[in-house]
Amino acid sequence: MARVAPSARSRVPDWVEPMLAKPDGGRLRSGPGWAYEYKLDGYRCAMRIAPSGTTVLTSRNGIDFTDEFPTLAGALGVALGGRAAVLDGEIVACNEAGQIEFGLLQERRGRYQKYRTAGHHEPFEDARVRFLAFDLLQLGDTRLLEQPYDERRRLLAALPMPAPDRVSIVPAFTFDELAGDGLTPQDLLDRAGSEGYEGLIAKLRSSIYVPGHRPDAWLKHPLIQTQEVILCGWRPGQRGFTGTLGSLLLGAHDPGTGDLVYLGDVGTGFSRHERAELQARLEELERRTHPFATAPPREDVVRAHWVEPVLVGEVQYRQFTRGAGRLRHTSWRGLRADRSPDEVIAPRAVEPAAAPPPPAKRITVQAGKRRLTLSNLDKPLYPDGFTKGEVINYYSHIAPVLLPHLAGRPVTFIRFPDGVGGQQFFEKNVAKGAPDWLRTVVLPSSGSRGNGDSVEYALIEELAALVWAANMAALELHVPQWKVGREAKARHPDRLVFDLDPGEGTTIVECCRVAERLHDALVADGLTPYAKTSGSKGMQVCAGIRTRSPRAPSAYAKALAEQFAAQTPALVTAKMAKALRPGKVFIDWSQNNPAKTTIAAYSLRGRDRPTVSTPLTWDEVRACRRAAELVFTADDVLGRVEDLGDLMAGIDDTRARLPNRLPDGHRTAS
C-alpha cells in the first residue's frame, strides 16, 4: 500500500457550500419517498476532517468556527481511522433539561467575543455545546454529493461516534418506518414539539446534495415562525428603558426585486445586558439616512437612529401582514453571526386559504362551460404526497399556455390510477365513460400490432377536457409532431424535435452542451429553435417547420444527429442501442417518426416529485452547470409562467421551410 505524504494526510477537505431547506408552505409532505429529521435551532456548520484528524469547523457563510468551539474539533478525527470526512450539521447548546436552546448559544457567543477581544489565546470552553450531524458529504477520497440521501445517511450512520456528548447524529425517520410503528409524519411532528424541537425537515430520499441551493427536495415545516432580519436602525427606550435601546428597526430583501424593504420593529425578548450591548454595537454603525429602497412610514420611525445594514438577527413572530408586509407580534431571539445580510429574504405574504369544502368523495365543479364530477381529490398521486386535487389544480392553472401545445394533436395519456409507484399504463383509445362533448379523432393504428385497426384519440382543446383527463390520473400527456387535418387520416408535420437523453454518467448538463450546438445548427438552417426539459433526466430541442413530407423531419434530424456523433463521438451517439449510451448523450432523432409521440410542454411527469416538462430560455441552457438547476415542479412552473409567460409561444409563428439539403450534403424531399 502506498504511503501517504504528511502534507496529504494533514490536508483538510474543501468546504462545501451547504444545501438549504425551502419552506413547505404549511403542508408537511407525506409518502414513502420522504424521510424526516428534527429541525434544529443552532448554527449550521460543516465539520471538515483531514486523514490526520485535523478538523476545521466552517459556518454556513464560510466563517471559521474552529477556535470558538475547540471541544468539537477533536471529537471525531481519531475514530475515522485515517479517513478524511466532511459532515454537515448544526452546532447547538442544550439547557439543563437537555433541550436545545438557541439563547444559550447566543449568550455563549457574546462571552466568546469578549474573551477574544481581551486577547486570550487559550481554548474557550464556556458552556457545553454539541455538533449534531445530519449529512455526510465526503468519506475518504470519495465525494458523496451525487449519492442519494438514503445512501449518504447509511454511510453517516455507520461512522463511529466515540464522544456522543460532543458529536452525534440527528435521528432520521422514513415514512415507511413510521408507518411500521403505526405513526404518521404528523405524529412525529407532535413528538418533536413536545421534546422542544423547532419542527421537522422533510427530505426526499432519492435526492442528491445540491450545494448552495434550496431545491424542493428539502422542505422545512416549523412549529414556530422565525425570520432572519437585517438591523437597519434603533429607537431609544422610554420609561423603564430610558437611556438604552428600546427597539430595533428591521429590514430584509424583497424576494422579487432584491430591494431592502422595511419589515417593522421588535422591542421585546431582550435582556438589559443585550440592550446595552446591541446599542454599543449599533452606535458604531450609525448613518444619517435610512437604508431602505422606499422610506418607511413616518409614524414608525420617530426618534430613529439609522445604521449601516450589516448585522443580521433573528426574531420570532406570529403574523406577516399582506399589503404592508410587516412582521407582527415579534420577539427578539439574538444576532446571527453565521448569516450574511445578502441572504436575508423577506417572507412572502400568503393569501388566506378559502374555506375547504365539506369532506366528500365526489364534488361537482365548473370548468369553463362544462360541469364535471371529480372524485378522491385528497388521494396522493406522488410519493411526496402531491394529491389528485393538486394535479387538477395545476392543470387548471397552466391550461392557458398548455392547451395551445395540445390543440389539434391526438393525445396519448400515461395514467397512474394508483399513483406514481403503482400500476401505470398508456392509453390511446378514449376511455369508456368519456363525456359526449369530448372532441375525438379516429385514426389508423400506427403500432406494430395495429393490423389496420383504428384508434379513437382524445383531442384536449378546452379546460374541461384537461380537468377530465387529470381526474383520471392521466399525469403525462404525449403528442406527435403533427396535427390532424381536415381529413381524419391526414397527418401534417409542423414540428421538428431532438430528444436528448443522457446516458449513465451524464446529466442534463451534458445535454445542454449538445443543445447549444443544435441551436446554432438549426439557426444556420433558417429555423428557430426552442428548448425545454423533459421533466425527467433529459431535454428536447424543438422548432416549427413547414414540409410536405411526413418522412423529411426524421431524415433531417437523423442526419444532423449522425453529424454530431461523428464530430464528437466521446459525447454524442445517434444510435439507439443502450450499450452505446454510457458517458454520452443520445440524440433521439426517431421522435420525428409520425408514429412517435413526445411529452408535451407543461405536462407533468410520473416521477418521485411532480416535475414538469418546462420550456427554457437559451440563457438558462447556456448557464446550466448543475442538473438541479433545471428541475422544475408544478409550483415552480406556475410561478415561471406568471413571470415569463409561455417561452414556446412563438413556435407556430416561426415555422420555416425544412431545408432541402441535409447537413451531410445529401438532398431530401421537404
From TrEMBL:
PROSITE patterns named among the record's database cross-references: DNA_LIGASE_A3
Molecular-function GO term, any one: DNA ligase (ATP) activity
GO biological process: DNA recombination; DNA repair
Cross-referenced Pfam families: DNA_ligase_A_C, DNA_ligase_A_M, LigD_Prim-Pol
InterPro entries named among the record's database cross-references: DNA_ligase_ATP-dep_C, DNA_ligase_ATP-dep_cent, LigD_pol_dom, MtLigD_Pol-like, NA-bd_OB-fold, NHEJ_ligase_prk, NHEJ_LigD
E.C. no: 6.5.1.1
Family listed: In the N-terminal section; belongs to the LigD polymerase family.
Name listed for the protein in its UniProt record: DNA ligase (ATP)
UniProt organism field: Amycolatopsis acidiphila
